[in-house]
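Technical annex B. To support the medicinal chemistry partners, we prepared a structural model of the target in complex with iron/sulfur cluster, based solely on the information shown next.
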Amino acid sequence: MDDSDQLIRISALQHYAYCPRQFALIHVEQVWAENYFTAQGNLLHERVDGGEPEQRGNVRYERGVSVKSERLRLTGKLDLLEIEGKPPTHYFPVEYKRGKPKIEDWDKIQLCAQALCLEEMRNITIDEGAMWYWKVRKREPVLIDDALRSVTLAAIEGAHNVLASGITPPPIEKKKRCKACSLVDLCEPGTFRHDRSNTYIKELFAASTISDSNES
Ligand code: SF4
């Protein structure tokens, strides 16, 4: 399968960053299970994306901004873009999330991918954005630096590779993450891990039998 023309939704990158198997189950196999967390997250985005643009002082606030990158084959929607100055001198993307700040980069990857699209579309540079977390009512600044850009580009490449291969990767070994995963019942990571270890042992056994018979 060739995915050279296929656009990935930016929101799908967090699925890949969370677990490549989850990404494949949703975007290759097209299964989906909405749990309490995903349903609440969708409601939040509907509310946030619905507002009209407004000007407050020197800053223009645009909501639900569509973004796209031909180069990275990405498309998506930005919750809020703050544009400072007339003419604009500073662009500041803001992404809203239902939960609270995470240690891992999943949310930041999404924000960075939005920034990369904006940079390509408007020929600008974005060095900072923010995540707004509903649960803790907190705005967290995010630097769009080289380290985040490189993690984001790796996630984009990995996601395109999974789509191109059409193959669903095996479960991740992070069992805590599986507990919070909306696809845990469909994925059955425990069963799959067990099957894989059985297969692995059988393959090892077969390999050693072949090498024994070659030596005799
Ligand atoms: S249950 Fe675990 S392995 Fe399966 S898709 Fe979710 S996070 Fe990935």
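Notes passed to the chemistry partners:
The two ends are 45 Å apart (CA to CA).
The first strand starts at residue 8 and ends at 9.
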